[in-house]
Structure formats: structure tokens, C-alpha cells
Amino acid sequence: MHEKICESLIEQAQLGDHLAREQIIEQGKPFIAKVSSTICKRYLCWGRDEELSVALLAYNEAIDAYNKDNKTTFTTFAHRVIHRRLVDYFRKEVKQQHLSLVPIDEDNNEFSKAEKDISIIKYQDSTQQEDLVATIATFNMILKDYGITFKNLVKCSPKHRDTRENLMRIALYIAENNELFTQLKKTKRLPVHELCKKLGVSRKVIEKGRKYIIALTLILTEPELTALKNFTSFPNTI
What we know:
Family: Belongs to the sigma-70 factor family. SigI subfamily.
Order of helices and strands: HHHHHHHHHHH
Distance between the termini: 43 Å
Domain RNA polymerase sigma-70 region: 48-93
Low-confidence stretches: 97-124
Keywords: Cytoplasm, DNA-binding, Sigma factor, Stress response, Transcription, Transcription regulation
Oligomer: single chain
Structural class: mainly alpha
Number of helices: 11
Largest sheet: none
Helix content: over 70%
Radius of gyration: 22 Å
Main location: cytoplasm
Strand content: under 5%
Shape: globular
InterPro entries: RNA_pol_sigma-I, RNA_pol_sigma70_r2, RNA_pol_sigma_r2
């Protein structure tokens, strides 16, 4: 149902049509709950979990900010906004929780400093974990626009180091070439002919590594996926 939300309805809402906005939000509630539960890694219930209220506000924000000219579906865009707002919420909640556990001991400054250091470390670890969960969920949504799933990606990931580094170089080249990157974003397909010509690689290599190349290119170029760069060792040169 959510995929069927028409752009004209979103345009009406952006122009101030409250009924159109209410209709989009009502249709989007199952989507909001599903995305939020996935990011939070637990079942969320309307009227009970604050995370859904945060996600609902983010969804409403996405309605106002969506631009169809960016060649991104509203579903993907809304997912990204929900992701960002929930991550902000996680950070705020975890920070407040750990700061409240830091003891104030004016008679023993060393003890207080140690406890504070432990609290900060716990906060940083928890924040990083929440960020990674949310980032992976967003990555999965973005990949769907290109007809790719995590299951496909795992199956097609190259086993040999040389092959993997070769595909990484191709992804780097696309990410650094505005013309080729724009073509990829617009068509959701690799510019195979141009890559073969400019990089001197065979069509077979590019087509076989298509999903892997696209995934790496997205990691390099999408701001929401920055955290995933730490798990990928890109070559320094093309």
C-alpha cells in the first residue's frame, strides 16, 4: 500500500492540503511501524513506544522535504529521514541515561573521574551500535531501488582478493566521476559501455560484479552510509 502513495498526493500535502497529508500518514503507518521496529530491533506498539512518535514526526517531515526530481522514491526518502531522527533520539536517550549514572563525589575526585570515563565509553559503544543497526536498515532500503537485496549481495561478493580490489577500483571511479555517477543514480544501472572503454575492463567482469560495484558505490557516496566505510578497505588508487 505504501508504495502506491502517488506523488500528486504528496504535492497536494506540500501545498497545504491537510486531508491529503492525513491520508498519506494513515496509509504510511504500517510502513512507519515496520521501519522503526527494524531499526530498534524489537516490536513497537502505537501509543506505548516513544520511538514511533519520533518516527511519525520524521515521516511528516519527509512529506514536506520530498523532491521527486531527486530520482529517489518517497519510500526510500522517508526511511532515511526516520533513520536520522531515530538515531538522534537514541543518542539523546543513551546520553541522558549514562550521565544520570555518573556519581558526584567531591571528596574522591579520582573515583568520580573513573566512573565518568566508564560511563562515556558505555555511551559511545551503545551509540555506535545503534548507528550501525540503523545504517544497515537504511542500506537495505537504498539497495532495493537498484533491485538488490542483502542476500544477493552476500552470494555475489567475490571470494578472491584481486577480484574484490578490482571491483572496488571500479566503484571508486564511478563515485569520483560526476557524469557516470549521475547516470547510475538516474537509470539504476551501471554505465557498462563507458566503464569498459575508460577503464579497459571486460564487460563480463563488470556484469558479473554489478551488484557488488553498485553497493560499494553507494557506500562511498551516500552520507547515511558513511559508517559502513569502516568495514570496507578501498584501494588508495584507481
